[in-house]
Design a protein that fits this description.
- This protein is mainly α.
- It has 3 helices and no strands.
- Helix 1 runs antiparallel to helix 2.
- The model has no long low-confidence stretch (mean pLDDT about 95).
Length: about 70
């Protein structure tokens, strides 16, 4: 698994987690869903993703989008 796939998997997991928490716990968790979506949007245009930097520190090999 490279950083690109790890970031996509992490974003998907966080989206599903925040949707579940928003539905079952508190609607305020939907703010996390919005944050994840906004982070994905800005990463698409800027190429900067904090999660990719953290995954790089863990030794996951670089990909084409986040190297």
């Amino acid at each position: 698994m490279n950083i690109d796939r790890a970031v996509l998997a992490f974003a998907g997991f966080m989206t599903l987690l925040s949707l579940s928490l928003g539905w079952f716990v508190s609607p305020y968790w939907f703010l996390l869903t919005a944050f994840v979506g906004l982070n994905q949007l800005q990463a698409a245009f800027t190429g900067f993703c904090p999660a990719a930097m953290v995954f790089g520190l863990f030794g996951i090999p670089g990909g084409r989008a986040f190297g």
